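Q: Fold this one first, please.
A: Sequence and structure below.
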Amino acid sequence: MQAKQLLKYLVVVLPMLTAACSTTTGEDQTAGTNSSETTTGAMSGNDDGVEVMTLEKKRQMEIEAEERKQAALRQTNMLFFEFDGTSIQAKYFEVLEAHSAYLRANPSAKVVIEGHADERGTPEYNIALGERRAKSVAKYLQNLGVMSSQISTVSYGEEKALDKSRTEAAFAKNRRAVLVY
């Protein structure tokens, strides 16, 4: 008889104990989960914050490096041309991009493009050649988005030679366009 009563007692009490234990455990787990979520969230927030700050800092460093590069490229203000040519050489594309970026960012800035020629050829021809060189650079800058109102051109022909010696190297120096701000 006592075994039957003990069995009945266990059948009634055991589920209650299990339920009680699971409820308590559930509350603890919920509290623990919330606690860990909060901690995780805070850590994620911190982690995200750190990552964001790191990415922002990295991006800022990239921007500063690009600005230094652009400023260095803008130091180059002379473009040289082939004999009797007005085509811009590929090595100057990056330089002109830096100048155009500056001019686009500063709409009030203006540039004068001076065209020059070596002393071979008639004065009239050299004036026209210098003008075509200056206009070639101006057109390139306009194609990069610079407003035409920011650009003016002038041709000096052979008048302002960098090197007055009559060597091929001197002639090459004098075939140029100069960007003057």
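Q: Good. Now the second chain.
A: Here it is, same layout.
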Amino acid sequence: MGQVKLITKYFETPGCEKLPVFESVGGYSRLRRIVEEEWTGEKIIATLKASSLRGLGGAGFPTGMKWGFVPKDAEPPKYLVVNADESEPGTFKDRHIIMRAPHLLIEGLTIAALAVGAHEVFVYIRGEYWEPYRVLKNALDEARKAGYVGDRIMGSGRSVHVTVHRGAGAYICGEETALLTSLEGYKGWPKLKPPFPAVKGLFRRPTLVNNVETLSYVPVVLDIGPEEFAKVGIERNGGARLFGVSGHVNRPGIYECALGTPMREVIYDLAGGIRGGKKLKAVIPGGSSCPVLTPAEIDVSLDFDSLAKLGSMLGSGGMIVMDEDTDLVKVLYRICKFYSNESCGQCTPCREGTGWMTRIMERVYRGNGTSQDLDNLVDIAEMIGGNTICPLGDAASLPVMSFIRKFRPEFEARLSRKYVPSGEIASPGAEGATR
């Protein structure tokens, strides 16, 4: 357990965003082996299943199993879509992979396309990621010229074409069905599942959707072998993942750790502990949608199953650390505003409920609320969760319930005006409520 360097070793190689450097450290050797040895899709998928690699975009679904859902006998076209719409507050790992090891992603997505029989790949990248977009486009040009993607890759009879598509910066388009709708040229609204994208996805054709980090681990699995990769992590949680640690720590940044590493080790050993020698107050383990944890809960093992047992999620791996001076009422107000702004408006519980929660939280934040407001927030959150087409409803409601249930005394103190807000949050029409 602890820190490993499976993807991050490429970060430490200067110039690894360039093809010659990437090739000099073994880049594309995994793809070459698959092509020259004429691996079948079934063999690639079986290798991924043996590795226990989980989807690292947030859901944590077993990767090999997901690939196996794409019907192998379906008539073409079949598609692979790479989710690079990294919009969860606190999450920034995929940006680092694209910027510092873009060829690792390209090698991984090409192997995935060969595994499921997809000849067309779309990389859907966040609209605000101008520089990562430029780096990825340059890397793709290099890979095409070298014959790693495009027609008849590496002289074989197989072709994989890759297109990079820039999104418009909507959080909801990180949800796979909304992403596909956006790619089709429509407003990025989620769709009900089933049918799942593996059967009817982009343009109602079989489509595999994976995120940047998941696909970047595919060459690693083939490099060290699936059994060795699985041993890096723990049972059902193979290998490692990147944790983006931000907030009040001495050394914020990206840390690659074996799944199963204790959260305390990441915060206090790798990230250097709490800034200024202060006490830890709270941790959001995997992006702003994850239920918050108290200091008493940070000995949890960082894997999908252990976080779920604790009532939270590993999510996107974006760990937000907050010290004893953090105004948690303000934090929750900001989270509520974010999800209210980003709700696509398709489902009534989410469209109306996130607005209600934001208005109530603004009242609480400014010291004008009542204890009933806190009860109402929990009730509204419970009514949103599980009652929307996509997970944004859950993403908006889970933080509300966890913050209030675990830190209610701080919220109560604000109601009784024992706690004076240290700052303001700009809000339309809020001037009159400021005291």
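Q: Anything worth noting on the second one?
A: Residues 426-435 have pLDDT under 50 and may be disordered.
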